[in-house]
Please model this.
Amino acid sequence: MRFSRQMKTVEEALQALLDKLTTLDEEQVQIKEAYGRILAHDIVATCDMPPFDRSPLDGFAVRAADTVHATVEQPVRLRVVETVAAGKVPIIPLEAGCATRIMTGAMMPAGADAVIMFEQTENPGEISEVVGVKRVMRAGENISRRGEEIAMGSVVAKAGERINAGTLAILATFGYTQVSVIRKPRVGLLSTGIELVGIEEPLTPGKIRNSNTTMLSALIAEAGGIPVQYPVLPDDLAGAKEKLTAYIQEVDMLVSSGGVSVGDYDVIASLVDDPDVELLFNRIAMRPGSPTTSLLLSGKPVLALSGNPGACFVGFELFARPALQRQGGQPIVSHRSIKAKLGISYEKPCPYPRYLRGRLATKDGLLLAQPDFNDKAGNLGTLKNSECLIVIPAGGKGKQAGELVEVIVHAAPSWREEV
Ligand SMILES: Nc1nc2c(c(=O)[nH]1)N[C@H]1C(S)=C(S)[C@@H](COP(=O)(O)OP(=O)(O)OC[C@H]3O[C@@H](n4cnc5c(N)ncnc54)[C@H](O)[C@@H]3O)O[C@H]1N2
Ligand code: MOO
Ligand SMILES: [Mg+2]
Model:
């Protein structure tokens, strides 16, 4: 057991972990399963978009030169030679004095260089062999040109982007029935401590139910990983090492909770001295979660979060989420911080930066960070409310209401307006 540990800042610790991680390999998925996945490669347009010159309106394709004398009072009359529905190919090239009745999305006939909408013609409700054009058209007016939005061969989505509804529209447009995505990280999940009982079990003296595993499982899935649940780790070093060594073969990362401090049964803390283990960090200048530990076992990462639920939650956001983003091929955005005004003074002194769970609100159009004062590391009743981590810098004074603070947003804010 190490009582003297080398301290790292949050940034140093995160970098030490990220430096050991690589993006996982890719796999093919059907477009129906692709929502939310991360693109492994740039996506290239397989055709021009639109793929042909088309009409953006319901109306008549005309030759602009035929309309130069058209007015509302004296419409120019043109002979309607054909009707083209969207999806049909026009067969009659347009000659002088002629027009083609054309629908939105339909292919332009050869010879036409403008489209006039029904509403700007005589008797728009009638289908007739002659159309009266009531205004002068410019050549090129109301035509969506082939390739005007996207040229064939251009990059339309980039590797590392998350596939959302708009990306799916692109993939469908360009005929991608399947797509290469980064494999989801498989994350082995375990807890430590014989005080833990299952959700379905009755409480007996000294015991609590295991809440971290269920919480972490959801956080892992939300961050794009696949949680793989393992049994509670034995609290003897040899037994724990044997299990961890076996489990880590099956996953891309192990995340555990508990056993990282200096207690007699804190088994992860003892493991860091094992010759087969490469320690990345086990003491961080932060509250809560200062004993958060990371190590490599068989060359793969183990992230050991504190057992205290509040510290476990914060440790996940600060270390596990970016680690999953790295393995999952995403840009690491979870540490992008913004500034907000502190809503209520936080005056508790702390020698290390404190990552306070909180909510974001707006007041008079400005962002307000509202700390959760239920911030004892062992508490869990308000984890559900957390939208961000509010960084209170180290030092004796804390921060006063109205001062600017750094905020790491980790969940979609509800943007409540403070009154
Ligand atoms: N002498 C010292 N004691 C402690 C120190 C210290 O520096 N010196 N650090 C404290 C800090 S800070 C933290 S954080 C905790 C870290 O504890 P561990 O990671 O070793 O976790 P455990 O000892 O296993 O458990 C702590 C607490 O959390 C509960 N727990 C554990 N697992 C779960 C779970 N899966 N679901 C719900 N709750 C869980 C456990 O019952 C304990 O109450 O150490 C301090 N001590
Ligand atoms: O570092 Mo601990 O999570 O404060 O209790
Ligand atoms: Mg402990």
